Amino acid sequence: SNGFSLVRKVFDVEHSDLGAYADRLGKPLGETLLTPTRIYVKPILKLMEEVQIKSISHITGGGFYENIPRAIPEGFQAVIDRDAVDVLPIFQLIQEVGNIPERDMFNTFNMGIGMCVVVKKEDAAKAVEILCGCGEKAKVIGEIQKGEHTVSFR
Q1: 105 in Cβ contact with 95 (< 8 Å)
Q2: Per-block average pLDDT, block size 10, for the chain (154 residues)?
């Protein structure tokens, strides 16, 4: 649901064939855009039983650049491995059709990463295992380091 005004502009939704792009998306554009937001309560509660969570960031409107810094203390930055972010086909399509710079995409959409959970480095593998066991597509996408209070990509 995030960035829907931009999506409407990119696809001129009122005049577009919402059945289009099914070959690229695996289902029609309209159906893809109406996919419900995931709810993470059960997997996070399960994770909390076994791993100390340092912070959580639900990646909503404002994407990575606005949401992640809210979940980390001043004096620290999130360093994201760009290649670890498997951008969903819908976001690739929006970027391509709208000719939108990648930074703007990561500042507007979640790009397929609905939630970031920060745990101690030594707990990362266990956290991924627990979340995957709950049916989530979890993986390590970066780390928290001392630095300017922001998000950077490497």
Answers
A1: yes
A2: 74 69 85 87 97 95 93 96 96 93 94 96 98 97 96 95
Q: What is the 8-class DSSP label of residue 37?
A: P
CB atoms within 10 A of CB 40: 17
| pLDDT score for 55 | 96
CA angle 100, 83, 138 (to 5 degrees): 105
* Non-local CB neighbours of 52 within 8 Å, separated by 6+ positions: 119, 120, 123
| pTM of the predicted structure, to 2 decimals | 0.87
Q: How much is the pLDDT for 59?
A: 93
What is the distance between the alpha carbons of residues 132 and 130, in angstroms, rounded to a whole number?
6
Q: Which CATH architecture has domain 38-153?
A: Alpha-Beta Complex (3.90)
Three-state SS for 73?
A: coil
Q: CB 65: neighbour CB atoms within 10 A?
A: 16
Residue 153 makes CB contacts below 8 A (sequence gap 6+) with: 79, 80, 81, 82, 106
Parse the chain into domains and list their residue ranges.
38-153
How far is C-alpha 150 from the geometric centre of its chain's CA atoms?
16
